[in-house]
Amino acid sequence: MTIPAMESERRARHTSQRAGRHIGGDADDNFSRGFSALGSLAVSGVQVSARATDLASGRVLFSVDDHVVMPTASIGKVLLLVEVAARLSDPAFNGYTILDRETADFVGDSGIWQHLQAPALPIADLAALVGATSDNLATNVLIRTVGLESVRARTEALGLKRTALLDLVRDHRGPDDAPQLSIGAASELTWLFASLARGEIVSKEVSQRVIGWLSLNADLSLVASAFGLDPLAHRGADHGILLVNKTGADGGVRAEVGVLRGPRTAVTYAVSMYFADTNLQARLAVLDGMRQVGLDLLEYVH
């Protein structure tokens, strides 16, 4: 699979490596609050990576080590959704195709299918569960169906070099398993979501399918906690605010990428934190730092 030269060149402009600004340094005044919060976290030992760009112009609004590869937990599931959405164009692989869950697919934590009685669901419904609740069981069934290698090939075809879905979801990771579910660089993640929002990932139809599934996301606990939206109902504009996002959470990992539209403008953002999750205070400090970035983003678009 290849991507057109023009698309490849445009992707390179948006994701090219650049030195991250020093936290707390020469930041745009619009984002001084977020820089201060991220700076305090970095001083305390948290590894931070972040980037925000204006959706219309592509201008980088702020960046902190945005080329650094970070663990991103469930954010890599977006790459799975892209592959599933692309395959739905094949009549032999349509949204009504029923998939059974198998014993090997079962895993705990996020998602609701593990708590439901239905032993099988249509492909489109499984993708919606992944978008809405980051459903781990639905994720594993979809990975088993399309193949992890196909997801990796699609990722490479998009030109993503520092972002990947590495493995199935597992309750425990052994020495022979990938150490993380997924990894990503903020520069590439913001490009991916900006391109989805513009209908440029694979095709307009495929991009719209993925955006539709992600618009169901009920996790507004990180950056998006600043936006004042109803976690269970925010597919339409609320006080002029419209959000599509994906979060990732694991031991010592909190990450979020999204597109935020407001009455004035729109931004694409990605924030990843890697920290020693040894006590509640450390975790709450990370969550508060992500919320501070969210407040700056809200102020910019509103």
Automatic annotation (TrEMBL):
Residues 1-26 are annotated as: Disordered. InterPro entries: Beta-lactam/transpept-like, Beta-lactam_cat, Beta-lactam_class-A. Keywords: Hydrolase. It comes from the Bacteria. One of its GO terms (biological process) is response to antibiotic. Residues 52-273 form the Beta-lactamase class A catalytic domain. Coiled coil: none annotated. Residues 11-21 have a biased composition (Basic residues). The keyword Ribonucleoprotein does not apply. GO terms for molecular function: beta-lactamase activity. PANTHER family: BETA-LACTAMASE, BETA-LACTAMASE-TYPE TRANSPEPTIDASE FOLD CONTAINING PROTEIN. This is Serine hydrolase. It comes from Orlajensenia leifsoniae.
